[in-house]
Each structure stands twice: as structure tokens, then as C-alpha cells.
Amino acid sequence: MQYREFGNTGVRLSALGFGAMRLPADEDYAIQVIHKAFELGVNYIDTAPGYGQSERICGKALKGWRDKVYVSTKNPLHDHTVEGWWSRLNASLEAMDIDYVDFYQVVHSIKWQDYEEFLIKAGGMKAVRKALDQGLIKHVCFSSHDTPENIIRLIDTGEFEGMTVQYNLLDRKNEVAIAHANACGMGVVIMGPVAGGRLAAPSEKIRKMIPTPVASNAEIALRFVLANPNVTCALSGMNTLEMVEENAAVASREEPLSLEEKKAIEAALAEVHKLSELYCTGCRYCMPCPNGVNIPENFRLMNLHRLYGLTDYARAAYRGMSNPERPQRGKRAEDCVQCGQCEPKCPQNIPIMEQLKEVARELGQQ
Q1: pLDDT value at 202 more than 60
Q2: In a shared domain, residues 227 and 292
Q3: For a designed S-S bond to 230, which of 105, 109, 182, 277 qualifies (C-beta 3.0 to 4.6 A apart)?
């Protein structure tokens, strides 16, 4: 297992971290999987109160390992009150049956607005410092899905020792923020290195991005993330013993990607990016659609199918749209009524209505 410095903390984390968001349903097996990761050198486990029974199960798995493994959990900001924040911290400690959290994401999925309204105006940072003084947390961190610009603003506050953000082959928008965090002495943990499972799906197009034989697309994805020198640790949601062994082997490589491999992937990604921009850049100028069609999401799924060969994933995600129980996903391409309001707004001059018909034809297949 490779180990990397977590910013200026003096802590060395395993390049592979255990993401405990989706543990196996069988609790005994889940603990067995976690223990296998620990045995193979993983020394960082990431959980959260919102991950079902994850904190409790992680706590059981930590018995006998607490002095060897660093724990990360998060504080979901259900309200902007200091009392609520303390209550959630104490609940996490109790659920895991531990005395302290090593790396505490003081706000789960923080936005810049949360920093201003809760951590500053509502006195959240004072609570964080008090928790530090009391030894309940060891390192102040955040997790975020905010814009790269706002993530950089959070870094520049100087309040945080580390961050957890998304970064993978399909989504590299945080690359500059990751480099900035490292330059500022912060540790960087990556969530979604396999893009929520999308990059684990079979795809010859992705397989051909790397000029040497690989076991799986997931291996390419993990090696790509770990080849970034600004990344400390990549989380993987491992739910089988085999997955742990495969990922641990990748994270044990001294050089995740050779120079030749890295150049080949960069060139392939640049080519794919050019092609994707011929269709849709995701600027969202076409939105909102008066009939509720999520135009950028339909086109994004089409790109996953057409450019990356992730057809099964794209079709499954497409079927999940137009769901009244999940209106935030928006509607499918087939719900377009051809009103034409979107097309004059598109800076790419995309024939949106025609392309939505194509999306419906390609992704609407069973």
C-alpha cells in the first residue's frame, strides 16, 4: 500500500480509503470486508450519519483497529444552529462508540453560503474550535459539491486542513481546486473516483484509452485519480472481498500510471471533450424548459452512451427520469413537446429538439 502526506498535518494516509456509504446488507460480511481492507493497509475510513447504519457498523469494525485507522465522518447541516451541530457530532461519536473523530467534515457537502451563514455568522467555527480544544475532533475538514470557484474560496479562508471533493475521468472540473488545496498545505480526499460506478461498467471505448492491458475500467479510473500528485487518498465504496483486493493492488503500485499511459489518457480525454462540446457544454442557458425536460441531463447521458460507451448506465439513468417522486431529476427527452423555446437560447446553436428525439430513440430502448 502506498501512503501519502495529508497536507501539513503530519499524518500519512493510505492512497486507498474505504468509502462506507454503501456497505453490504449482511452486517457480518460488511465488517469482514472492512477488516480485509485494514489488513491490506487501508488506514482511512469515511462514513456519515446519512449512510444508513454505516456509522454503527464502522464502529463495530474499528474494535481492535482504532489506534491504526483514521476515521472520517460528517456533520449534515440540517439547520444553521450550533446546538444542532453539537448534537450531530455527539450522535456520531455515540454511534461509532469512539471518543474522537480524526478527520471531521465540519459541514457535509458545504456551500460557500453555509460557510458565511453558519460557520461565521451563526458561530459555527467557534463550536468547531471548542470541539478541537476538547479533543473530540482532531482535524478540521469539509466535503463539498460546490463550484470549483467556491471550493477555492473555502480553501483560502485558511480554516481547513483537508477536503473531500469529487474528481474522476468523467468529471475533472475540480482539478484546479485540488492543486490549489495541495499548494496551500491541505490534504485532498477524492470521492467518486469511479464516478459512482459508471466507470466500472464495461466499455471498450474507455478500455482503449490506456495503451497497456488492464483488469477493468475501474482500475483505469482509480489509477488515473491516484496519478494526480495533488491527491492524498481516493475513496472506494468496496462491498466485496474481491473488490478490496483489486483496489488495494492498484493503490500499492509505486507509479499508478506511466508517463506513456498518462499521455494516452490525457489525449483520449481531450478528444472526447472536443466531441462532447459539439453536442452540449452544459451551460444550461436553455433552461428552464416550460415542460420540465432536463435538457442538459438528457444530453449528458447521451454523451456517456455515445462517447464513453456506458450505454447500460445511461439507459438506466434515463429510465429514472420523469419520476414524480424525484422531480429534481427532470423529465426525459421523450417529454419534449417541440415548443422551440430552448433553441434560440443555445450559444452552440444545437438543434435541441431534433437531438432530444435522438436521445429518446437511443436511450429509450429497453
Answers
A1: no
A2: no
A3: 182
